[in-house]
Every structure is written in structure tokens, then in C-alpha cells.
User: Fold this.
Amino acid sequence: MKITKVNKIKGIVYPPGDKSISHRVALISALSDGENTIENFLFAGDTNKTLECLQKLGVEIEIGEKLKIKGKGIKKLSPPHSILDAGNSGTTIRLLAGILAGQKFDSEITGDDSLRKRPMRRIVKPLQMMEAKIEPTEEGTAPLKIYGVDSLNPIEYEPEIPSAQVKSCLIFAGLHADGKTKIIERIPTRDHTERLLGLKAHFENGKKIIEVEGGKRIEPANYIIPNDISSAAFFIVAGVIIPNSNIRIKNVTLNPTRTAFIEILRQMGADIETENVKEVMGEPIGDVIVKSKKEVNLKNLTLSGDVIPGVIDEIPILSIAGAIGEGKFEVRDASELRKKESDRIKAIVENLRAMGLDVEEYEDGFAFEGKNKLKGALIKTFNDHRIAMAFSIAGLIAEGETVIDNPDCVKISFPNFFKILSSVVNF
Ligand code: S3P
Assistant:
């Protein structure tokens, strides 16, 4: 895929359905007692893996204009005939492990080369505290072997790192426990699982306490999934950094646990508005409008500490805004980035250097002085969808040609990314 400099971007973008919400709606539907219909489900690499795993667990799924999932009820999935494959998807393996841990049958779940390198002890440890029989490899990675149990013990647990996947895994396990599980978060992470299940949460000493009662019936529902704000982020930053742009991104999740990157772009000086804000299925959704002037003036900043978990998926694209901003752009306390679909610190640092920036790499982040010119380069995606999309946007402001080495990896979360991008660029 070759990308060259554009004059502006203009138009209306409909990003695909939200990835985090799609996974959760599929899993919750499978645990419900009856037939669910789902509009705007994301059909992409990661979420297809969740559907495939559920089918192997005996869940009837009909893929039509609307997705239909016939729930089997809590503790009623069927034993799979083969190993479950989560592919590239951390959300699939970690959330589904919470459900498998509470079933009466044995199962095994694994993933692709990237997923088999990612840390699983963060879910294995608390699941074992719940008396789940789950074993990772010696390195604490997938494949995960899970043995059947009659029930799980409820626990009170504060994850060591803020992670919506760990929290959601424990919520799903909690649905299979005898009693009330409490999960404590010092830094609140994306809360779609709690919203979808209508869970109670309160704050104590500044920490969020989420309560989940085991064994309760889940009612089937008709879901409408909002568009993905993290996919929208690539177009939002494109609108911010390409002069004379005017772009409207429709019907995206405006859940505050997902929109911190918009606040950061505003702090940097971006003109971003929201409109048509309403609530759909307990999630705030709306349009995001981005405008830029003839001269783009962004002020760089440091992202560190408690800010990081809320923008973890958007750091690759925020660093592209930083590349043209004025002053030092620094990311610290973000070593979690090394444990994503790729080592995203390495991927960002190498690719920004290839585009002409002088970047310093730290164990937990990176830093560079912004400058107004990027040069086109060969971008190594490391098979990571967010790296591919972030550096495609960088290519739109770079002098010369940018080549993305494996553009197909965008299919993990945003299969028609390049098609939509080409519909809004103006040369
Ligand atoms: C996700 C949680 C985040 C995020 C990932 C999706 C989710 O991961 O990076 O893309 O849907 O729960 P962590 O829980 O590892 O922070």
C-alpha cells in the first residue's frame, strides 16, 4: 500500500461497529437465556474469532443483516471438540477464559504467534483464587488449559494493573460463582461490560468497586452497537493534522472511558466538537466534528501516570499528532504498550525514526521534539492493525511516498479502513 501527501480531508465517515462492545455483546448473548439480535456488529478479524469460539462451544449464530445469537444460559455451553483459537485477539482469550473457567467441561484456548507471547498470569492468578482450574504455559502465556469445575468461589480483587480485559474476565467468571464477586479499580477502565450487564458500582476511598452476583439469569436483548471511537481516532487525528480539513465522524461511542484522547488533542489545540449526542443501550453516542485551519498549530505535551490506561489504544495515533506538534512529545509509564498486538513502543519509535524524527526510546515510553516535516518511509507494521493505521495517517502529511508493509493487518479491527480513507482524501 502506497500513501502520498494530501491537501485536506473532507466528508463524512462511518467507522465500523465498536470492537470492545461487539466482543462483549457476543459473549453476553451466548450466556443469555434466549435469542438475541445485534445490529452493527463488527465483523473483523478479532470479533470473528469470538464468534468462531462461541460456535465451537455449541452456540447457534446466524449471520445475516442482523447478527442473531441464541444464548445457552450460564454454565450451559457445550464442550468443544477441538482447541479454541482466539487468533490475534487479547479480548477474546481473556474474556472467554473467564467464562470457560466456570464451565463443567475441560477446554483449551490458544492464539496466533503474537497472542501466544502476551501475558496471561494477570487473569490466571485471580481465576485460580476463585478456584478455577486454569494453567498457562511456564512462561505464563497461552495456550491456556482449563479444567471443568462445579462452581467458582467469589472473591474481592484489585487487579495489579488497570485492565478492562482483566476486569471483564473476572466479571464473566463472577457470573459463574456462588455469591458476590467484587472487583476494585484504582483507575477506572472501559466499562462496557458493566453497562451491558447493568452491574452496580460505587466508589470507596476514590476506588471503583464493581459487584457481580453469580448464577443470575441473563435476559436476551436486541442490541445496537455504536461505531468505534478508537477506529474513529485515526480520522480524528487526520482531520487535526492535515490543513484545511473538515470531517464528521458519525455515531461513535462517546463513553468517557474511551474519549480521553479527544481531551488530549484539545489540550494540544485541536478543534474537535461533538454533536447529536444521545444515549443508545446505556452508552452515550454522537458525531465528532474535526476542523483544521490553513496553518496547523499543535502544542506538544507529556502523557504519563494515570492518563495512560485511558488512551492506551490511541497512543500510536496521538504520537503522529505529536510528530508535527511544537515542543517535546513524551510518553512515560506506558510499558503496557510493549504487551499489545506488537511491541508498540518499538514499532512507534522505529517508524517515527524512519520518517525522520530523532526519537528517544525508554522501557516505558518514548520522547521526541516535534517538527513540522515528516518524510515518506517504508513502514513496518509488525502485523499490528493500529500501527498500520496510525502510520498510514502519517503518510498523508509526509513528503514523498510512504509504503505500508502489510496493510492487510487492518482487518483485525477495521476491514474497510483504506476504502473509507480514500473516500475522504483530497489531493
Ligand atoms: C480492551 C481493553 C484494553 C485495550 C484493548 C481492548 C477491551 O486492553 O487495549 O484493545 O476490549 O477490554 P487491556 O485490558 O489489556 O488494557
Observations:
- The first strand starts at residue 2 and ends at 3.
